[in-house]
Amino acid sequence: MRKFRALTILFTTIFILMSVLTNLLPFGLTTKTVEAATIKINLKAATITTGETITLKLIGTRNKPTWKSSNQSVATVDKSGVVTAMKEGTAKITATLNRKTYSCNVTVEPNIIEGLNFTAELYENETTDSVAVLLMVTNNSEESITFTSNGYVINESKETSSPVYLFDSTDESYDLIDDITVESGDTGYLYYRNESYDSFTLDEDSWFAFDFSYDDANYYGGINLNGDLKLYEGSIYDTD
After folding, report:
1. Letter string b/e over residues 119-153, b meaning 16 or more CB atoms within 10 A of that residue's CB
2. Residue 23: inside a domain, yes or no?
């Protein structure tokens, strides 16, 4: 009888203790499951023009990643994720954090100047020994444009011919000149002649390229037989 009472008291005590512990768990003994935050880059692809900047960052973490550009000649990136467009092309910007990588594909397009209209007389499949190009430019932009003396014919392989030179089309002597400036609101006529010993051919795969400066920056442009125009920031010698 005494053993039965003792067992009853023991089981009752255990039951009470278990009840107390169960009631305490929500307040101090529960375990919490914390899900890891999903880390991602704010932009997976971006298109910007030369000279423009964008800022990349990782979302879902306060830790700082290491940034790297696959092609620094096209786009650079600093330690804060600021991407600067250098020239036309593509580059992959990569952020590395805890051995994981996150990337953004950046496309850099040339900085086209609004308000410029170019037309040109080119000679299809004709070897040009004297007159190379008569280029007309209408300047509806806000700044003046200065064209330098040399022009080139660039073929599909981006090889350049011997230079052709800028002449004064209003002078019957056609003296060689260093540059021509077309003011805002004006139309200018640029007369390029081939004065080298080498002749060259303008065909459907050729572009006539020319240098000019605008708003304290250097540019070069190209126009083909169809009248298509391309403008680039930089030098005429940078044809890569």
Report:
1. ebebeeeeebeeebbebebebebeebbebbbbbbb
2. no
Partners of residue 134 on adjacent β-strands? 121, 191
Strand partners, 85: 75
Q: Which of 53, 86, 109 is the last residue of a domain?
A: 109
For residue range 218-232, list pLDDT tens digits in order: 888 877 766 677 777
Name 102's Cβ contacts closer than 8 Å, sequence gap at least 6: 39, 40, 41, 58, 65, 94, 95, 96
Same domain, 53 and 120: no
- State how far the Cα of 202 lies from the Cα of 214, in Å rounded to an integer: 27
DSSP character at residue 26: I
Range of the domain at 86: 40-109
SS3 6: helix
Q: Which residues contact 88 (CB under 8 A, 6 or more apart)?
A: 50, 74, 108, 109, 110, 232
- 98 or 130, greater pLDDT: 98
Specify the pTM. 0.50
85 exposed, middle or buried (CB, 10 Å; 0-12, 13-18, 19+)? buried
Asked whether 220 and 211 are in contact (CB, 8 A), the reply is: yes
Q: What is the pLDDT of residues 182-235, one digit of tens each?
A: 899 988 877 776 655 555 566 667 777 788 888 888 888 877 766 677 777 777
